[in-house]
């Protein structure tokens, strides 16, 4: 899927961008596919990383870039030609530390209640203070001010796909940026398309993982002495759990959205319990990930690496 994603990024009418592909794969296929699309384009760097997990990949990208603004795209997404310009315009306000874009399935016309990565609104919104971070947008379509990411100590490497706590690194980073006093913007003018490539069984597994990650986020902030973590847990289970089950029953008349709602009633609690085995860096609000190979904690290492920039 990296081919379609990279092709759409290189089609942006911007010669001033630096494109970094972080390759965490175990073979050469990703590099070969990316090289075939880049065709020697000087804007593109393909970086091999032995670390696993989307948070580790994003931290490495932040370390490697020299740009004031870092935009992220997942490999299963396609960006529209005007997406980057729409994201960049919002950073003219120095208070803005992050901008999120509209993200829908390719060919989207109407909802079916089982979307996993989805933000339909076309309206612009500005968020600050105590706001549930899932109101803002998804990590697959966003740009962040690099200095703000560095100040946070980077993304939490225990969270996200490929990490021990499996998901919700975008939820967590948005929460931490808001808690630090930054402004986040959602703009419907920046559009990405997220491919629905997973089978139903895979989508069920992804939903369970997201519940675990969300619960781990809530527990982390509770353990840091922030009672708003409990408020977020209550809002999450009501909005993405109870209401989703109800919508599946009454609106969609389908067991699939009901099952996805059930996951957000059950798995956040599992994630909260699983998260208790990880120590926390309370200053940066990141988990410390002690890997079995005896390396120093990934979260601390990423934070220190960012501090040296």
Q: Which properties best describe this structure?
A:
single chain; 309 residues; alpha+beta; Spore Coat Polysaccharide Biosynthesis Protein SpsA, Chain A; six-stranded mixed beta sheet; two-stranded parallel ribbon; 10 strands; disordered C terminus
Explained architecture:
The chain has 309 residues and is α+β, with helices and mostly antiparallel strands. The chain has one domain: Spore Coat Polysaccharide Biosynthesis Protein SpsA, Chain A, CATH 3.90.550.10. Helices cover 44% and strands 17% of the residues. The chain has 10 helices and 10 strands. The strands form 3 sheets. Strands 3, 4, 5, 6, 7 and 8 form a 6-stranded mixed beta sheet that branches. A two-stranded parallel sheet has the order 1-2. It has a two-stranded antiparallel sheet with strand order 9-10. A hairpin with a 4-residue loop joins strand 9 and strand 10. The longest helix is centred in the last third of the chain and has 25 residues. 41% of the residues are buried.
Q: Mean pLDDT score, rounded?
A: 93
Number of extended strands: 10
Which topology does CATH recognise?
Spore Coat Polysaccharide Biosynthesis Protein SpsA, Chain A
What percent of the residues sit in helical stretches (DSSP H or I)? 40-55%
Computed structural class: alpha+beta
Topology diagram in text:
Elements (H helix, E strand, L loop, with lengths): L1 H9 L8 E5 L5 H10 L5 E5 L5 H11 L4 E5 L3 E3 L3 H7 L6 E9 L20 E3 L13 E5 H7 L16 H11 L3 E12 L5 H24 L4 H25 L2 H21 L4 E2 L4 E2 L10 H10 L2
Helix pairs in contact: 1-2, 3-10, 7-8, 7-9, 8-9
